[in-house]
Amino acid sequence: MGKNFWLVKSEPEVYSIDSLEKDMETPWEGVRNYQARNFMRDSMCVGDKVLFYHSNADPTGVAGVATVSSPPIPDETQFNKKSEYFDPKATPQKPNWICVKIAFKEKFKTIITLAEIKSNKALKDMVLVQPGSRLSVQPVTQKQFETILGMARRK
DNA sequence: GCCAACGTTGGC
DNA sequence: GCCAACGTTGGC
Fold this sequence. Notes:
Layout: E1 5-10, H1 17-23, E2 25-27, H2 34-43, E3 49-54, E4 61-68, E5 73-74, E6 98-99, E7 101-113, H3 114-118, E8 137-140, H4 142-154
Parallel strand pairs: 1-3
Antiparallel strand pairs: 1-8, 2-7, 3-4, 4-7, 5-6
This protein binds a DNA duplex through loops.
């Protein structure tokens, strides 16, 4: 339990690390990519550590840390006709989209920017910096996670 | 706002 | 099952 490490992306104008700090916990809804869903459904465990990344932001980068705080649960937005994430093919008996809840852990004093991540050789294998990679939920290694944390502590 | 890269959809 | 067209992501 709690031995995997992840990175999730969010546009801060939609949901930022400050939003999570205020809510303390939130279902990670609205992911509509099968690979990302499969990570949440099949591989995430309660207690896993999560880097919270701000995309389409100024600056873009890792803004803080969260933890996985629930087992996989159906993403409720797929049943809501009014939601932009509504999926007419999904039913409560046969949900198509699965998510987990994440809980606030910490907000970094400053963002660890994408530029800083790219210039750190220890992080060159991160999924985040692979050309063309757009996964919004992605695995990171323990070492990558600790490297980012170290950069945040040092600033 | 632009645009490259990727994922999904749908005709055949 | 192929693949062109379209939509989305996300850095810049």
